[in-house]
Amino acid sequence: MDVKYGITENFTLDATLIPDFSQVGFDNVTLNLGPFEQQFTEQRQFFTEGTDLFTKGNLFYSRRIGGRPIDQFFDERKDDDEFTDGKKVNNEVIDIPDKVQMLNAIKISGRTKGGLGVGFFNAITEKTEATVERTEQTINGLDTISNVSTYKTTVNPFSNYNIMVLDQQFNQNSSVTLINTNVTRDGRFRDANVTGLLWHVEDKESRYNVDGSFKMSTISDDEDNPNTGYTFDTSIGKQSGNWRGEIGYNFENKDYNPNDMGILFSNNEQVIYGFIGYQLLKPKGLFNNYRVNIFYDVNFLHNPGTYVGTNASLSFGADTKERFSFGGNLNYSTERKDFFEPRQGTTSGVYFNRPERLNVNHWGSTDYRKKFAIDYDWYYIFYKNNPKEDYGFRISPRYRFTNKFSLIYGFRYGKTNNGQGYVTKIDEDDVEEKPSLAPLKDHIIFGQRDWATYDNSLTGKYTFSTKSAASLSFRHNWSKVPYQEKYFSLNEDNGELTSNNYQGEHDKNFNSWNLDLNYQWQFAPGSQLIFFYRNSIRPDHDFAPANIEFKNNISKLFDQSMQHRFSVRLVYFIDYNNIKSII
Predict the structure, then answer these.
(1) Residue 358 to residues 117, 388, 449: CA-CA distances in angstroms?
(2) Residue 304, preceding peptide bond in cis (omega within 30° of 0)
(3) For residue 13, what are the β-bridge partners?
(4) Under a CB-based contact definition with an 8 Å cutoff, are residues 380 and 518 in contact?
(5) DSSP secondary-structure letter at 200?
(6) Which residues contact 336 (CB under 8 A, 6 or more apart)?
(7) pLDDT tens for residues 493-503?
(8) 62: which DSSP letter?
(9) What confidence tens digit (pLDDT) does each residue in 239-270 have?
(10) Of the given ranges (245-259, 417-431, 434-448, 567-581), which has the lowest mean pLDDT?
């Protein structure tokens, strides 16, 4: 059940009870070999409407609610490699849900006549359990006796997510915001609290602004030893007129972590940044508008202040009077110390030395008013004193057959040749399993690989009437990553790679296939009947060799198990005012 209630003319309450999000669109999943998670857009209607106040300070990543279980204590499940006192115990998860069920959520938001914005959000998710198979082996004389059993373990406890926001506007476009996010989990699972103070101050003519924030996070893995971190940023800029610019500074210390309810890819960083730009405010000659910007940033670790690298870019964009949009970028990066790719933590002092690079890209888009239009872009990246190269392109034609029917096709191709990336770190278990790795014990292994990505998509819509329409969404993403049997040890003192004799199988063949068909009929005001069908395939990374051709990959892909999902959803809107008048 969903409830929408106008508390006053300025404040609205939205609530949902045991929501069903099974008909939302699929995520554009890609192969991820990097150190950071992939971020997905929010498609659930409850989290996309009326959430402007809750996104202040970038502390709310709504996909955390109802996402994958955190399984915080997975390393406590006993997994013996050898017999101890004649006994060996192994625990293996054989069934774990891929998401946590949300039980209910409520949000109240609005703004007073005095300009005070008030927001309250709360959501509750249920306890989630996984099934574990326990194998206990006991040596009895010359025999080994095995006893297999299963049990349930909590991978995500009953959890409460909460946001409070106060946002005071003044002096027309200025504001001060206080926001707090909190995640409270049942039992000994981690709790998290983040508080932010934000400010944006402009002069009365809105020509100049001062922007900034201070945020603090507290993670309670251990209630007696909470982990507190903080971040600060500030900037001053000119935001109107032909010439614009900004200069600023921000940092996150090594303990700042808003990721229980927000998303931050990396902390322990600080950056000095700025830009200056010129833009055309009135049509002139061939152009409706154009803009030129120069950006720069200088990067350091926050602790201990190590210089990481500098980036600079020149960008141009324009719209002609014929409605053709185009532009491009020239991006330069100095040699950079990457403290994240080795997966050892930024305070370890271990980094991978990335080469100096130059990136060139261009994009264009024709007039959407015409039946046929096309979007395109391409890029090429040069690397200094390194065999690596990156290039790719995207082309997306669209055609409007009638005012009721249109289709958009998209094709994207990207290629990395001779790239270097993290593979593994050799530990004691690896040596015990394969004694030939003993000379490489404690080495961080990198591999040289080629990486090709193909992305095909098709979207379309047919409108039968103002009250009914059918839509299509299709996407096949394919990445193949064959390693060149060239492996290296990372020098932990200078970030350079040294060849070694490591051998392993790390090739990847990633496929993500999704096709959605959707029909919606609005049979009464606010009421809908929705028919939904999804066809999806997600095989393991080793289902086919990485050096396979496209045609053969598709053939093998269709040999894999295919999931079909069909659902019918009825939404009936009940107007409380009508019921009240009858009563």
Answers:
(1) 45, 12, 20
(2) yes
(3) 5, 108
(4) no
(5) E
(6) 299, 308, 309, 353, 354
(7) 999 999 999 99
(8) G
(9) 999 999 999 999 999 999 999 999 999 999 99
(10) 567-581
